[in-house]
């Protein structure tokens, strides 16, 4: 069984994905970390993010055993990931790993931007998680503060708006809800309430099928 979760930056996809996976005994993959890890390779080697060939090579030879490195979750890496994720060869190189991950028993939860549309179009349940940009910026601000990164709220909001725009307008795998996705607006839901709402959607969906 596959649960696909897509949505914009800091909408709560990762938190929800992990909670659902723990609850259901499924594996969980935050696919944003793959793009962040590719960006990290380029930045570590001093290669400009505009070098498409180098980005594709980095994606093809990505070591996926270090996705839990804490520095991948920083603000700069999210921005850099959004640049290299627009390159089709980078996306192609990361596809097989994501699809393979989704084939695990008894199930898998994958979250990102194109899980329901491209990576797992046959997912059993597709959720599209949204929240107003101001609320997402507030959450990301608090999250970064907890990590020891004090980035101004206005800077984060501007970054989120820029990233939304880039992710939604790129020609390759743009961020959008799959036709059969159920949208959950978490603007007024904390992580617990979002988890309960998602579980109810999943239960309802599985009862129908
Ligand atoms: O956590 P946050 O939503 O800020 O970012 P993320 O999910 O780690 O993703 C970082 C960037 O990677 C996004 O802005 C997207 O451009 C890209 N990404 C993507 O293109 N496709 C995915 N399946 C996941 C992330
Ligand atoms: O994965 P994504 O970028 O969509 O977001 P996240 O990393 O799951 O969530 C960003 C931050 O917002 C985390 O610190 C969560 O604890 C928090 N959050 C929240 O306050 N309310 C929610 N409904 C979901 C997440």
Architecture overview:
It comes from Microvirga thermotolerans. This is Cytidylate kinase. This protein is an alpha/beta fold. The protein has nine helices and five strands. The chain has a five-stranded parallel beta sheet, sandwiched between helices. α1 packs across α9 (191-208) and α3 packs parallel to α5. It is globular. It binds cytidine-5'-diphosphate (2 copies). One cytidine-5'-diphosphate (CDP) binds next to α1, α7 and α9. One cytidine-5'-diphosphate binds at residues 9-10, 14, 31-32, 35-36, 78, 81-82, 85, 112-114, 163, 167.
Structural class: alpha/beta
What is the CATH topology descriptor? Rossmann fold
What is the number of independent domains? 1
Q: State the fourth-level CATH superfamily.
A: P-loop containing nucleotide triphosphate hydrolases
**Series of secondary-structure elements, N-terminal to C-terminal:** EHEHHHHEHEHHEH
Quick overview of this protein structure:
It contains nine helices and five strands, in the order βαβααααβαβααβα.
Primary descriptors:
kinase, dCMP kinase activity, 5-stranded parallel sheet, transferase, EC 2.7.4.25, binds cytidine-5'-diphosphate, nucleotide-binding, 209 residues, 54% helix
Secondary-structure topology with pairs:
Blueprint: E1 2-6, H1 13-24, E2 27-30, H2 32-44, H3 52-60, H4 75-84, H5 88-102, E3 108-112, H6 115-119, E4 125-130, H7 133-146, H8 153-169, E5 182-185, H9 191-208
Parallel strand pairs: 1-3, 1-4, 2-3, 4-5
Helix pairs in contact: 1-9, 2-3, 2-4, 3-5, 4-8, 7-8
Residues 9-10, 14, 31-32, 35-36, 78, 81-82, 85, 112-114, 163, 167 line the site of one cytidine-5'-diphosphate.
């Amino acid at each position: 069984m596959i649960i696909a979760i897509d949505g914009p930056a800091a909408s709560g996809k990762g938190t929800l994905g992990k909670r659902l996976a723990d609850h259901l005994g499924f594996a969980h993959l935050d696919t944003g970390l793959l793009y962040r890890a590719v960006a990290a390779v380029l930045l570590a080697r001093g290669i400009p993010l505009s070098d498409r060939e180098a980005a594709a090579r980095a994606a093809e030879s990505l070591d996926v055993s270090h996705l839990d490195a804490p520095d991948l979750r920083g603000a700069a890496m999210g921005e850099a990931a959004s640049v290299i994720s627009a390159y089709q060869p980078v996306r192609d190189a990361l596809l097989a790993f994501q699809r393979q991950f989704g084939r695990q028993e008894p199930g898998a939860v994958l979250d990102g931007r194109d899980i329901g549309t491209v990576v797992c179009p046959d997912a059993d349940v597709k959720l599209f998680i949204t929240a107003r940009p101001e609320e997402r910026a507030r959450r990301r601000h608090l999250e970064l503060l907890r990590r020891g990164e004090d980035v101004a709220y206005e800077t984060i909001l501007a970054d989120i708006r820029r990233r939304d725009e880039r992710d939604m307008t790129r020609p390759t795998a743009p961020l959008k809800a799959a036709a059969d996705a159920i949208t959950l607006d978490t603007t007024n839901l904390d992580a617990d309430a979002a988890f309960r709402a998602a579980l109810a959607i999943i239960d309802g969906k599985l009862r129908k099928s």
